[in-house]
Amino acid sequence: MVGPANGGRIPRQVLSVVNGGQELGNRAGPGSVSGSDCGGFEFSREDVESLLNERIKTKAKDKFNFKEKCEVMTDYIRRLRNCIRWFQAREGDLLLQLEKHGKLLESAEKKCNDLEMLMSEKEEELNSIIMELRKNCIALQEKFAKEESDKLAAMESLAKEKDARMSAERSQKSILEELERAQRESSSANQKILSLNDMYKRLQEYNTSLQQYNSKLQSELNQTNEILKNAEKEKVAVLENLSSLRGHCTSLQDQLAATKASSNETTKLKEALASEVGCLRLDLQKVRDDRDRLFSQVQDLSAEVLKYKEWTGKSVAELGNLTTKSNVLEATCSSQSNQIKTLQEKLAAAEYKLEMSDVSAFEIRSGYEEQKRVNSDLQLRLAEAELKLIEGESLRKKLHNTILELKGNIRVFCRVRPLLFDDAAENEPKTVSFPTTTENIGRGVEVFQHGQKHSFMFDKVFVPESSQVEVFVEVSQLVQSAMDGYKVCIFAYGQTGSGKTHTMMGTPGSFDDKGLIPRSLEQIFESRQTLQNQGWKYEMQVSMLEIYNETIRDLLTINRPGSTESGTKQYAIKHDANGNTYVSDLTVVDVRSSREVSFLLNRAAQSRSVGKTQMNEQSSRSHFVFTLRITGVNESTEQQVQGVLNLIDLAGSERLSKSGSTGDRLKETQAINKSLSSLSDVIFALAKKEDHVPFRNSKLTYLLQPCLGGDSKTLMVVNVSPAPSSVNESLCSLRFAARVNACEIGTPRRQTSSVKQLDARFSYG
């Protein structure tokens, strides 16, 4: 085939035509080889073989016509040169292409090595992060154990402090009893003082009798004067003793005032003592008054004695009686002073005991305040440790989600429903339990079958006491990703009667028992209202369908599937190049509030296929798929996001031997089990990373293809029944969930674009 040097194509010329002797002259024209340039011709394999096998022919009549032979040979040699030059040019082109391919191969190998090094570095970084997280977790566990031990020690010290406080209270009670005894003794002393007053009165009466006898003692006035002088000296001594007692009483009053100021707790006791001391002072004042009165009487007596010096006729016997009576009076005064000293000593002892009780009470109070301060410090440290533990757990969850997103794994939550009254059986142990270790708490579940324990670990495990709010808190961040432009898929899996529909839809008419779908919609519309302040405008569209017996039904259409129009309509699943999934002729409704979506959900729930089996009174006989498409536009930043939220309630797997399905229910059970079996085949193929994944084996797997094999954030909630009769199905569900959790489907990708490139409204295919 012959072509020009500039790459244009011309009709092919075969060298055999040139070999003819008659056309040789025509080939020697402008179309022949010009000089050394052979780039204008191309030679095929047949041309080269014909050129090599060509024989030089001459006319038989003129055998010795060497000129003609020379021309033929020259033409042959020229064509051979052209062929050789063409081969040389082709060889040069091939060498250039080989060099170019070698360079491309080297660059590809270099890029591959760089990618391998980058992957190894990323793997090392992730391993180091995981090691650091493990170290932090171990450190937090050690700190928590230490805080627990400190807390126990603080509780023990608090118990000891309570015991010491009780002993102090008992000692205080004993001190109060002693003070009461001292009060009783002081009252007895008051009675003795009264008796002394009576004695003084009797002495006064005796002095009056002495006045009567003064007329008889005129003869011995000198002796009586000396006796009176001695009596006056004794009275002075008594007065001195009384003054010392009064000073001592004033000191006692000062001490009582000091003790009253130092101790608030014993104020009443001190006031009682002060009142008693006041009584003593009054008694002493009475004694002083009596003493003054006696002194005046003695003066009167001395005056009378002076008057009666002139009188005589006193007998010596009466004077002796007077001296004996005065001696008795001195003895009574000394005994009274001794009694006052003993009372003072008892009062000092009582004050000392009171001071000691004040000191012990102050020490106990200070120790209690110190222990209270230590307890408050320990509580603060415990609160800080709990806060750090919560922060570490949130950081662990965030890093765990990041690692899962990098790995592309499907996240799996496990929820165990409560044990119902019909599930309870006598003398049967529990088949489902939850580990309490720090590493497995909230993430592990254990199933017992025939005495053997089967342990499973998931991203999150909800106990039967977990509420709908607790479940949604763990899912809320994933729902928020749909507002950020990600494709999100959440589907519930489990056997019949395990609580899938309750988890996804909740209890109708109950505000606190709403499921994931209503709560997700409320969060999305609340976020929409919040993001409007940042310049975002969102448009949302809802569609709902069910897959019943491998047939797609539109749950929002006006006509039910039994009608003629809907029966003739065929719905086809389509996937575009961006990984988006559409169902042809499916009803799509624009929504502006969660109330509108709730109305559509109620309408779809009434249209969904539900039947009664032996395992469940209200058994879902189809796979329910809720799709919310979100389009957000921010004109200030010229950014647009397109998110999709798929919430799927799968029909429950069941065994025919337990469900007792017949007729239509039998067909439904077979279709459900077939689609779930196809889902299991897809999961196995993804886990083994096979080249072919059988997504097209069922409508369910083909609809979930972008979620299981694309760039979507996917969460599976496996629901488990704790009934002993369902232990086999629970084990199958948990094993399948563990395989799903190990699948890697790719890193999620956010769908964003510029407003100038895409329309502000999302269009459906």
Explain this structure.
- The chain is an alpha+beta fold and 765 residues long.
- It is 59% helix and 12% strand.
- It is built from 17 helices and 17 strands.
- Strands 1, 5, 6, 7, 8, 11, 14, 15, 16 and 17 form a 10-stranded mixed beta sheet that branches. A 3-stranded antiparallel beta sheet has the order 2-3-4, covered by helices on one side. The protein has a two-stranded antiparallel ribbon with strand order 9-10.
- A hairpin with a 4-residue loop joins strand 14 and strand 15.
- The longest helix is centred in the N-terminal third of the chain and has 148 residues.
- The radius of gyration is 59 Å and the shape is elongated.
- The N terminus and C terminus are likely disordered.
Question: What attributes characterize this protein structure?
Answer:
coiled coil, motor protein, elongated, microtubule binding, 765 residues, disordered C terminus, 3-stranded antiparallel beta sheet, alpha+beta, 10-stranded mixed beta sheet
Describe the structure concisely for a colleague:
By secondary structure, the chain is an alpha+beta fold.
Tell me the total number of β-strands.
17
Low-confidence stretches: 1-39, 561-566, 758-765
Radius of gyration: 59 Å
Q: Which shape, going by the Cα principal axes?
A: elongated
Helix content: 55-70%
Instruction: Classify the secondary structure makeup into a structural class.
Output: alpha+beta
- Percentage of β-strand residues: 5-15%
GO molecular function: ATP binding; microtubule binding; microtubule motor activity
GO cellular component, one term: microtubule
Protein name: Kinesin-like protein
Keywords: ATP-binding, Coiled coil, Microtubule, Motor protein, Nucleotide-binding
